[in-house]
């Protein structure tokens, strides 16, 4: 097991991120489509406006934030560290570039181009990433979530975390919307720390210390067992007194 390059935690075998930071990637990718819809709403024209005598608008239109236009526009992006990037690339371009980079490293079976199709199959990189739901923000996020278990085994996992983290915080700064976290009463069953949180819009409950995750039903079962143990301990203390 190796150390996480972002924090002192230990990463699982053959992975380059600890559970906490790989969980960040999954949560950010699940959040991005909603944030993109909030950005798009800022570009929507007003439903109606007062008209002047000539039928024109009586008031000047609300100025559009060019940063929002850039984020929702098309374009290209190179995720390789050290390239010339001003940090203002569109969302879909960033996601698509990372998907393409991951796909290039994903092993796929195929025939050598100079060999007969009936010959031996070879393991070779994928030609490109093809999201099932189209090359949209939602489509790329779905693709990246599906391939996240493979992505965290690549040496670029920390760069992916940094890139998506910068992107989501940049968008949150424009939408002024950050998912709220709700602390849970029961301690983590993995590390026993009181660090379990439920985040708005996310199904799983996550330990912020060790990264362990529980679905709501698992947490309810765990919390009930903890409460039962505490009640039994209290009864034993009362009996001893």
Describe the overall structure.
With 241 residues, this protein is α+β, with helices and mostly antiparallel strands. The chain folds into 2 domains: 1-42 and 65-109 and 121-178, no CATH class; 180-241, no CATH class. The protein is built from 7 helices and 6 strands, in the order αααββαααββββα. The protein has helices spanning 19-43, 66-72, 91-105, 137-146, 148-151, 157-175, 216-240; strands at 107-111, 121-125, 181-183, 196-199, 205-207, 213-214. β4 (196-199) and β5 (205-207) form a beta hairpin. α1 runs antiparallel to α4 (137-146) and α3 runs parallel beside α4. It is globular, with a radius of gyration of 24 Å.
Defining key terms:
single chain, 241 residues, alpha+beta, 4-stranded antiparallel beta sheet, 7 helices, 9% strand
What's the structural blueprint in terms of helices and strands?
Layout lengths: L18 H25 L22 H7 L18 H15 L1 E5 L9 E5 L11 H10 L1 H4 L5 H19 L5 E3 L12 E4 L5 E3 L5 E2 L1 H25 L1
Antiparallel strand pairs: 1-2, 3-4, 4-5, 5-6
